User: Fold this.
Amino acid sequence: MNTGQWLGLVTGILFGFLLQKGRVLRFEKQIGAMLFKDMTILKFMLSSILVGMAGILLLSNFDIITLSHKPMNLGAILIGGGLFGAGWAIMGFCPGTSLGALGEGRWHAVFAIAGMVAGAALYAELYPFFKSTVLAWKDFGKIGLQDALGVSLWVIIPVFWAGTISLFFWFEKKGL
Assistant:
């Protein structure tokens, strides 16, 4: 394995450890998030985004990594997001938490994982059909937030951090 793979493995294990310690792998936390009664998962996800967005941009600025956006395809986003949300609501797991739950020994997560694998296989099989239908919907190309807003990411990141931290304080005030 090369250095990048080792770093990926170490950060993946660390992220899994934090998922478990943050208790976001628990079914009751998943349901609480969907009912807007427990914001633990949202706080965890937003914290990960805060660290990741600054870290990835720093790595990019130091030419350690190269950023490459996926095309922003309206059909793929709407249908893929809907399927992701439906699967999460039905199973109580997203892809990361299902693997973490299985790692904790909760075997019912196997059904969520099997559903994801079956869905990926079905998508691969039906890709030619999707390419000429759903994926042919409005394609905005490879744009990022800075392109859409016309502002540097180093302006966007502090604004996002401030908004997220304010949201955290509000959650705490409301007992969420």
User: Anything to note?
Assistant: The chain has eight helices and no strands. Helices lie at 3-21, 27-34, 40-61, 74-91, 95-103, 109-132, 145-149, 153-174. Residues 109 and 134 are 30 Å apart (CA to CA). The mean pLDDT is 88.
